[in-house]
Structures are given as structure tokens and as C-alpha cells.
Write a structure and sequence with these properties.
The complex is a heterodimer. Chain A is of the alpha/beta class. Chain A has a single domain, classed as TIM Barrel (Alpha-Beta Barrel). Chain A has twelve helices and nine strands. In chain A, helix 2 runs parallel beside helix 4 and helix 6 packs parallel to helix 7. Chain B is 43% helix and 18% strand. Chain B is built from 15 helices and 14 strands. Chain B has a six-stranded mixed sheet, sandwiched between helices. Chain B has a four-stranded antiparallel sheet with strand order 1-2-12-11. In chain B, strands 7-6-5-8 form a four-stranded parallel sheet, sandwiched between helices. The chains are: A alpha/beta, B alpha/beta. At the A-B interface, helix 3, helix 5 and strand 6 of A face strand 2, helix 1, helix 8 and strand 11 of B.
């Protein structure tokens, strides 16, 4: 069983969705991001997504863009990522990395997979790499026993959902809205329909993200998803110093309703 | 007018949009449906006589094609005495080659049943052309423009607004062209059902590089016929400036199957490629993925995209179209940097000697021609793509040459 499969099977055994929290490495600083992630883990995140700050984050809304800019201005380097991932493992948490493709290319595809696996990372989410272009990445993640998570969107055809499911390992990332990251007042109505469609193609766990900012919204998603992914709200919580409270609220939310097994 | 310019060629990319190891689709899954749809519509349109007739009619009756081919003998005297011909894209409606692509994509937008168009712009030429086509065809138009560029090119902001477009200054990142593209992509992913992203250069995910190239192939088709008529032979060199590379790829394709014709792209060398301030992606960049395609990119060792620098806002871009990367790899085209100073010298020279004020972008191609002409000597024959006119660049010229009233 892959490292991520065990995260989801544990949650399934408790009839609940997993809480997945995102934070860019290097935000608010390299050491600061380690502290925040530690809090997220201890307050109830089942899995954390460590973001790799990138100069041109086309899938991110303004909250995460600014956090990435701050990290880069603060001198964040790609090599710092691995220490941040290690710190999650050291705190008893489990981590995947979310990264745009160009920094992986620049670091070296195989080298990136090797160093992340060595740091204890379980997998990688690649928002701008589609499986069609993923041959080298699939080879490298296989070689280093890393899970890889491709995305599906409301606009994905059945054929493309099949391709994403076949190419992914660990879980599938469903973007619940057509749009960039950022907390929203209303969680998209497209999400349940997308998850239902994806389940016709695969038994793989499905994480749903984009827009969640509180426990009530997490509970809505937990009713039909295997994982609830929260990003921008954590970045805002760092600014407001409310990370522990947000995590607890979300962790309560994913336990309010039973996820259909 | 030729209708064959959109027809498939042996130089087309593979089904996934790859030119050799370049191109492809490095982009969010959420947009794959939209580019698939665009590719499907384009594959039908490029061989549909009705579409081709409508496109040809717009190029003729609205854009003013064919554009002239003008010999520049006094300029040529400075280029080692070589004969220099200028393909006058500056005489097109809206003042540059950009109108060719914009009219083609606006027609496709209507075919797809979309009502809203978004675009990015650097210098404002593509934004103005897009706003123009949208006014003509009754499409809603939103143009993203880096805040720095809105300040450098305030006249073009006013033109776009007059044409009915909404201009949104982009305040993130380096606040220039690459950030305007990021913001347009963010808009597109949220509004893809009713919106077409009218990309302004032969870059981005498949099918944009092939589609933009094809809409500009008319430049090379016309120029080849014109220079055969006027000079009685093919040119030794075709020179064009390369930022994203759309005007260059359009004129290059007219000669790509003529092995005796050298294709030379002139890149923005800024302060010089030995400094950090330039935009010479093919000369000094490394392979990477930016804005949807694999190509040469200006980046640091971590893969963070660098800011490009050029006196020309239209060439100020850290990426380049993937077909140029391929042509460089296979040796069919060569690419050379031209510094700001060389470009501005050529800008002044053409103005004074020939009575034609070129765009600062096109002045890079002219500067290249001066060097190439000296290499070729008096027997040489050079075709320069004069991609745009320089009216928009008067602020730049005033600052560079000190042309203000007090001097």
C-alpha cells in the first residue's frame, strides 16, 4: 500500500474524510513554515501539502500568489523544500508537495523525486503537468516510490478522467470550481457532480479543493469527498495567527458527516 | 489572395503540439477542454473555403493587405551596400502585423459561439488589434496589461478604451507582459465556457503556436512573391525580430522550404547578453516550461522565471514560441541578439534615410540587417520584416535621443 493510501484507509475506517491542509514552504519564512506546518499536523491535518513557491503561479489566486512572492523575496530556494518536508515527518505528520512543473524540470526530474522521497515526502501534486506530458515524471516517481497526483476538473471529459485516474497513485485531486485558488463563501455546486462522475471511473480516493475556508464548508465536502483540501484559508490564518483554531474547526467539520464508504 | 496559407504543412507539430522536443501542453487540466475545442475548430476552419474566404476578405478590406514591399536603398548603403527590402507590415490597419492573427482568432471565436475575448498585451499593439477586431465583430473585450506597461504605453491604453475594451492593469509579479499572461490565464480558467483567450504570439499551449503562425503565414506568402517580382530572385537572408516570435515565424514560413534562404531572428539584447538586463531567450535561455509550452526560457537555476529587459515593450518577454526553439535546434534558423543601442541607431537611421519610422521592435530586425549586409557585401539581398510602425514609440525616442522641446 502506498503511503497515501494508508492515510485514506485510516480515515475511511473512521467513516470520515481526510483533512488536507496546504502551506507554501518558506511562508512566512523557511523556519516559520516549519512551525506552522507542525501546528497544522498537531491540530488535526491528516495530510499536509507543502507548496513550492513559483514566480508564475497561474493556478493561484491572489492570497497564495502573495505568499509565494513573500517566500521568494525572503530568499527561498528549492533545496529548502526538502528540509520543510522533513520537518513534517519529524513532527509525526505526512506530507505531499504541490509544485508547478518548471522548478522540477530545472532541479532535474529524477533528482527531485529522489530528494523528496529521501526527505520522507509521500507524493507530488502537479497542477500544470497533465499525464499526456508526464512520461518522464511517471518514470521518476515509480523509480523512487513516490505517489503522484494529477488533477481533474469540471471540464474534464470522461476520457481525460480515465487518463488522470490511470496515471495517478494515492489519490485524485478534483478542482471543485473552474477558477484559481482562493477561499469562497459558497462551495461550488459543480463539486458533487464532478466527484460522482469520477467515481464512475475509479475507486481511488478523491480529494476536493478550491474555495474551502471553514468547518461548515468542510462538512459539506466531506459528505461526498474522501479528502477536503484547504489552501488559501491557511495562508490567511498565518497572517491572523489563527492556524490552530482553523485546523480544529476544519477537523471537526470533516467529522460531522459520514463519508459514504 | 492566396487561400493556401492555412493549409497543413510538413512543418506542423505532432498531434500533441510538439515541434521536436518543444511545445506541447504544460497547463492546468481545467483548460485542456478549451484548447482541445480550439484545436478541433481550427483543424476544420483551416481547410474550410468559407472560413478562408471570410479571412481573406477581412485581410484585404479591413486590414489593407497585401502590404507593400519597399526597397530601402539609402538604408542599404549602410548595410554594406546590400539590397534591402522591407515588408511593410507597419502599413496594416492598427499599425503592425498583429492584426492578421487577431482577425483569424476573432473569426474562430465567433465559430465557437463564444461572446467574450480576453487578451494580454505588452506594448499595447496586440491589445489594440484585439480591441479593434472585437469592435468590428461585436465581441466583448478585456485586455490584461502589466501596470508598468500601462504607464509606458498610456496612448495605447486610451486607444483600447476608445475601441470599447476594458483594460485591466496587472499589479502582480514584475507587472509586465508575463504577468499579464498569468492573469489572462486565471481569467480564462474561470470563464472558459463563454470566453476565448486571444493569445497574441506564436507561443502558449497547442494549438496556439501553429494557429498564430498560420494566421501570419500571409506575410511570407506575399513577401516571397513580391521579392521574386522586384529583385528577380530569392533573398539571401530573411530577418525579423523575435520576442514571442509571431511576425518572424509568419515571414519565415514563406521561405522555410527554400534551403538557400537563411532565416535570421533578432532578439532583444537589452544592455547586452553579458548583463542581466536583456530578453534574448534563444541566445541565452535554457529549456523550460512557461505559459503552457516547453521552449527556451530566461530563468534562474531554481526554475524561477526571470524578468526580461528590453527598450521595446513588445519584445520584453522571458519566453519564446516553441517552433523557434525547434528551428534553432535543427539549424534551419539562426538567432542573434541586438542591443537597445543598436536597435535605436537603426530606428533613427531608417527614419532619416528612408522616411519610415519603424517600431522599436522592428528596429531590432533592421539593426540585424545592417550587420548581415556588411557580412554579405554589395551582392547581398536582404528581406526585413518591418513588423510595425513607430508612432507608439515616440516617448521612447524622446527619452533616448533627447528630442524634447528644450533640446
Amino acid at each position: 500500500m502506498s503511503g497515501l493510501a494508508s492515510v485514506f484507509s485510516t480515515c475511511r475506517a473512521e467513516s470520515r474524510a481526510a483533512l488536507i491542509g496546504y502551506l507554501p514552504a518558506g511562508y512566512p519564512s523557511v523556519e516559520g513554515s516549519k512551525d506552522v506546518l507542525k501546528t497544522m499536523v498537531s491540530a488535526g491535518c491528516d495530510l499536509v501539502e507543502v507548496g513550492l513557491p513559483f514566480s508564475d503561479p497561474v493556478m493561484d489566486g491572489v492570497t497564495i500568489q502573495r505568499a509565494a512572492e513573500q517566500a521568494l523575496r525572503g530568499g527561498f530556494r528549492v533545496r529548502d523544500l526538502f528540509g520543510v518536508v522533513e520537518s513534517v515527518a519529524a513532527a509525526g505528520g505526512r506530507a505531499v508537495v504541490m509544485t508547478y512543473w518548471n522548478p522540477v524540470l530545472a532541479y532535474g526530474v529524477d533528482r527531485f523525486a529522489r530528494d523528496l522521497a529521501a526527505a520522507g515526502g509521500l507524493g507530488v501534486i502537479t497542477p500544470d503537468l497533465v499525464p499526456d506530458e508526464g512520461a518522464e515524471w511517471i518514470g521518476a516517481t515509480d523509480a523512487h516510490d513516490l505517489d503522484r497526483i494529477f488533477l481533474v476538473a469540471p471540464s474534464s471529459s470522461g476520457e481525460r478522467i480515465d487518463l488522470a485516474a490511470k496515471s495517478s497513485r494515492g489519490f485524485l485531486y478534483a478542482t471543485s470550481v473552474m477558477g484559481v485558488t482562493g477561499a469562497r463563501d459558497v462551495v461550488s455546486s459543480a463539486a458533487p457532480a464532478l466527484v460522482k462522475r469520477v467515481r464512475e471511473h475509479t475507486d481511488m480516493p478523491i480529494g476536493v479543493g478550491l474555495g474551502v475556508r471553514n468547518g461548515a464548508q468542510a462538512a459539506e465536502l466531506a459528505a461526498f469527498a474522501d479528502g477536503v483540501i484547504v489552501g488559501s484559508a491557511f495562508v490567511s490564518a498565518v497572517q491572523d495567527d489563527t492556524v490552530a483554531a482553523l485546523t480544529e474547526d476544519l477537523a471537526t467539520g470533516v467529522r460531522q458527516v459520514a463519508t459514504p464508504a | 489572395m492566396s487561400r493556401g496559407q492555412l493549409a497543413p504543412t510538413p512543418h506542423d507539430p505532432d498531434e500533441g503540439g510538439h515541434f521536436g522536443r518543444w511545445g506541447g501542453r504544460f497547463m492546468p487540466e481545467a483548460l485542456i477542454g478549451a484548447v482541445d475545442e480550439l484545436a478541433a475548430f481550427y483543424e476544420k476552419a483551416r481547410v474550410d473555403p468559407e472560413f478562408l474566404d471570410e479571412f481573406a476578405r477581412l485581410l484585404r478590406d479591413f486590414a489593407g493587405r497585401p502590404s507593400l514591399l519597399t526597397e530601402a536603398p539609402k538604408f542599404g548603403a549602410h548595410a554594406g551596400g546590400a539590397r534591402v527590402f522591407l515588408k511593410r507590415e507597419d502599413l496594416n490597419h492598427t499599425g503592425s502585423h498583429k492584426i492578421n492573427n487577431v482577425l483569424g482568432q476573432a473569426l474562430l471565436t465567433k465559430r465557437m459561439g463564444k461572446k467574450r475575448v480576453i487578451a494580454e498585451t505588452g506594448a499595447g499593439q496586440h491589445g489594440v488589434a484585439t480591441a479593434t477586431a472585437c469592435a468590428l465583430m461585436g465581441l466583448d473585450c478585456v485586455v490584461y496589461m502589466g501596470e508598468v506597461d500601462t504607464e509606458r504605453q498610456s496612448l495605447n491604453v486610451a486607444r483600447m478604451r476608445l475601441l470599447g475594451a476594458q483594460v485591466i492593469p496587472v499589479k502582480t509579479g514584475s507587472r509586465t507582459l508575463k504577468d499579464a499572461i498569468n492573469e489572462a490565464l486565471r481569467d480564462w480558467v474561470a470563464n472558459v465556457d463563454d470566453t476565448h483567450y486571444l493569445l497574441g504570439t506564436a507561443a502558449g499551449p497547442h494549438p496556439f503556436p501553429v494557429l498564430v503562425r498560420d494566421f501570419h503565414r500571409i506575410i511570407g506568402v506575399e513577401a516571397r512573391q513580391q521579392i521574386l517580382e522586384k529583385a528577380g530572385r530569392l533573398p539571401d537572408v530573411v530577418a525579423a525580430c523575435v520576442g514571442g516570435g509571431s511576425n518572424a515565424i509568419g515571414i519565415f514560413h514563406g521561405f522555410i522550404d527554400d534551403p538557400s534562404v537563411r532565416l535570421v531572428g533578432l532578439e532583444p539584447g537589452g544592455d547586452g547578453i553579458d548583463t542581466a538586463r536583456h530578453g534574448a531567450t534563444l541566445t541565452a535561455g535554457t529549456p523550460g516550461s512557461l505559459h503552457g509550452a516547453m521552449s527556451y526560457v530566461l530563468q534562474d537555476e531554481d526554475g524561477q522565471i526571470a524578468e526580461a529587459h528590453s527598450i521595446s515593450a513588445g519584445l520584453d518577454y522571458p519566453g519564446v514560441g516553441p517552433e523557434h526553439a525547434h528551428l534553432k535546434d535543427i539549424g534551419r534558423a539562426e538567432y542573434r541578439p541586438v542591443t537597445d543601442a543598436q536597435a535605436m541607431d537603426a530606428f533613427a537611421l531608417l527614419s532619416r534615410e528612408e522616411g519610415i519610422i519603424p517600431a522599436v521592435e522592428s528596429a531590432h530586425a533592421l539593426a540585424g540587417a545592417l550587420v548581415l549586409g556588411r557580412e554579405l557585401g554589395p551582392e547581398g539581398l536582404i528581406l526585413v520584416n518591418l513588423s510595425g510602425r513607430g508612432d507608439k514609440d515616440m516617448d521612447t525616442a524622446i527619452k533616448w535621443f533627447g528630442l524634447g522641446v528644450e533640446s
